[in-house]
């Protein structure tokens, strides 16, 4: 258990490779070096499966794939997404959508969502807020945790949605707000109530109530887990008890031969640095709290490298990606399964951040290349990943890029809600279709090649403009390489005399064989490759 432990054997092999046949990683300016060979010379013969810890195996001897690492989640802001029932919808909310989203709209969109290659959906809160304000539309201040908000639909609508998602092979995760609620909260069926203030509630007094919420919907609708809002409001020891209750409920269902409602995935939102995420969400090695949390520091590094953060921080080198991954490996406990995303309902869309960075909009080819580059990094990430609805087609808010301060709430253009746009599931233009198809292909490669989602990583190159990792799992070895410069470049691998090692591109099938005991791999401007070591 613990991907970090599996790094060590590979790292030793590579250290020998780099010291005997490599050169120091080169650096180059922001626009690239026009294609000069780049980075260390790496002997594929020495890029061997880890000689140390092995992945766990089944009784049949097959490597065990952690189902959590294999999650490819599609996040939906329910109130903004799709109008499937004219009688439903809030008609008000934050952001630029028409705010008529409902459960039938999500159900209608499920075939499209499944076609993307994801295997799970996460719905923002749908419990009854007993109100009709913009804040109520978000769902994040519910009053009745055991009823569906009628603005979204009925209990039967929710059941239809979950059953339809399961029929398509999609897990369903609800959004759990276990640290605050609307005043006058309704009691659980057992009579339990949260204690303390409305925001935040008090623990451990609120534990019986929220344990009941967390397990009730697993039985009632067979949901598969929870995204946990503002998880820092709940102490780690309370999360441990809630998780234990969820795991016990899932085990009970597995024992009853149930297919769904057995995963019990729980992912924390702690929008802070790695140390605080570790403390508030993961707990310690000896006293684990939650087992997954969103990796905001890695998301921020990815956005800073390819666009800009919301606050304007930009211009990070490709090596910042390796630094963020290394920090996570050094900070998070071994049980951690960091979840990586690019956008969520509280951030600015990646397309708008590309424009805020001054890199141009949809009219430029680089706009679409930067999206594909970011998606490739997610596809090569060890651990669960999340795609925010609309990012798959390069969505952005027209005439918005620079931060808006005056009347941003009234205009729906505040940075913390501007990405809550109306969902689009058809009528795509050629560029949107191309991006959607590229993401779908990446997600299917991720599913087909376990080294991507489950593999131990060893960094090969981390310079100003090129990042490359080796991903290894159960004998499969894949090199992921990303060029963040706006000019093409290449990476050169050494090959020991007599070695027949070669690299095969998993996307276009190109085989790099090389000559003179070297293999040179080209990288397009803002391009990437996924290369299987053969």
What does this structure look like?
It is a single chain. The chain is an alpha/beta fold. The chain contains 15 helices and 21 strands. It starts with 6 loop residues before the first helix and ends with a strand. 52% of the residues are buried.
Write the layout of secondary structure elements.
Layout: H1 7-21, E1 37-38, E2 72-76, H2 78-81, H3 103-115, E3 120-123, E4 127-128, H4 134-138, E5 144-148, H5 155-167, E6 171-176, E7 195-196, E8 201-202, H6 207-220, E9 225-228, H7 236-255, E10 265-268, H8 274-282, E11 292-293, H9 296-306, H10 319-331, E12 340-341, H11 350-356, H12 365-379, E13 385-388, H13 408-411, H14 430-448, H15 450-454, E14 456-462, E15 466-473, E16 476-483, E17 489-494, E18 503-505, E19 511-512, E20 518-523, E21 528-533
Parallel strand pairs: 1-17, 2-3, 2-13, 3-6, 6-9, 9-10, 10-11, 12-13
Antiparallel strand pairs: 4-5, 7-8, 14-15, 15-16, 16-21, 17-20, 18-19, 18-21
Helix pairs in contact: 3-5, 6-7, 9-10, 12-14
End-to-end C-alpha gap: 27 Å
Low-confidence sequence ranges: 1-36, 43-55
Query: How big is the Rg?
Result: 23 Å
The DSSP helix count reads: 15
- Mean pLDDT equals 89
Largest sheet entry: 8 strands, parallel
Number of strands: 21
The shape, in one word, is: globular
Lateral arrangement of strands in the main beta sheet = 11-10-9-6-3-2-13-12
Task: State the share of residues found in helices, binned by percent.
Answer: 25-40%
Residue fraction in strands? 15-25%
Which class of secondary structure composition applies to the elements?
alpha/beta
């Amino acid at each position: 258990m613990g991907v970090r432990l599996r790094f060590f054997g590979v790292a030793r092999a590579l250290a020998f490779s780099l010291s005997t046949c490599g050169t120091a990683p080169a650096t180059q300016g922001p626009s690239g070096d026009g294609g000069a060979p780049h980075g260390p010379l790496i002997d594929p013969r020495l890029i061997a499966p880890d000689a140390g810890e092995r992945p766990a195996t089944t009784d049949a001897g097959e490597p065990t794939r952690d189902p959590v690492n294999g999650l490819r989640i599609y996040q939906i802001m329910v109130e903004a997404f799709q109008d499937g029932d004219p009688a439903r919808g809030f008609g008000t909310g934050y952001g630029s959508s028409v705010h008529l989203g409902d459960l039938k709209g999500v159900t209608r969109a499920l075939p499209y969502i499944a076609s993307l290659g994801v295997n799970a959906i996460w719905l923002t809160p749908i419990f009854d807020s007993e109100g009709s304000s913009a804040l109520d539309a978000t769902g994040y201040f519910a009053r009745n945790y055991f009823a569906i908000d009628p603005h979204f639909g009925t209990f039967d609508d929710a059941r239809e949605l979950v059953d339809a998602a399961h029929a398509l092979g999609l897990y369903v995760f609800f959004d759990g707000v276990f640290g605050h609620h609307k005043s006058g909260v309704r009691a659980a069926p057992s009579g339990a109530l949260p204690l303390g203030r409305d925001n935040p509630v008090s623990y451990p007094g609120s534990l019986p109530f929220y344990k009941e919420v967390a397990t009730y919907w697993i039985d009632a609708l067979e949901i598969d887990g929870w995204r946990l809002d503002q998880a820092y409001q709940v102490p780690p020891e309370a999360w441990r008890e809630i998780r234990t209750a969820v795991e016990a409920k899932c085990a009970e269902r597995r024992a009853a031969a149930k297919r769904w409602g057995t995963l019990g995935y729980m992912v924390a939102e702690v929008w802070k640095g790695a140390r605080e995420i570790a403390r508030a969400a993961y707990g310690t090695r000896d006293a684990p709290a939650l087992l997954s949390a969103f990796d905001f520091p890695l998301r921020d590094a990815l956005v800073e490298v390819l666009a800009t953060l919301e606050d304007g921080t930009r211009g990070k080198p490709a090596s910042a990606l390796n630094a963020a991954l290394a920090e996570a490996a050094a900070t998070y406990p071994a049980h951690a399964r960091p979840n990586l995303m690019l956008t969520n309902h509280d951030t600015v869309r990646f397309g708008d951040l590309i424009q805020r960075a001054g890199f141009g909009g949809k009219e430029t080819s680089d706009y679409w290349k930067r999206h594909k580059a970011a998606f490739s990094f997610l596809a090569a990430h060890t651990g669960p990943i999340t795609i925010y609805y609309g990012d798959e087609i390069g969505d952005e808010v027209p005439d918005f890029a620079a931060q808006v301060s005056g009347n941003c709430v009234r205009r729906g253009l505040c940075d913390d809600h501007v990405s809550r746009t109306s969902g689009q599931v058809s009528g795509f233009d050629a560029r949107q279709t191309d991006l959607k198809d590229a993401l779908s292909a990446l997600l299917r490669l991720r599913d087909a090649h376990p080294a991507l989602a489950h593999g131990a990583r060893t960094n090969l190159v981390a310079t100003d403009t090129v990042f490359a990792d080796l991903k290894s799992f159960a004998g499969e070895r894949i090199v992921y390489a990303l060029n963040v410069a706006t000019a093409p470049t290449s990476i050169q691998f050494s090959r020991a005399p007599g070695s027949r090692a070669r690299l095969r591109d998993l996307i276009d099938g190109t085989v790099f064989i090389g000559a003179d005991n070297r293999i040179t791999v080209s990288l397009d401007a803002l391009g990437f490759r996924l290369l299987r070591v053969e």
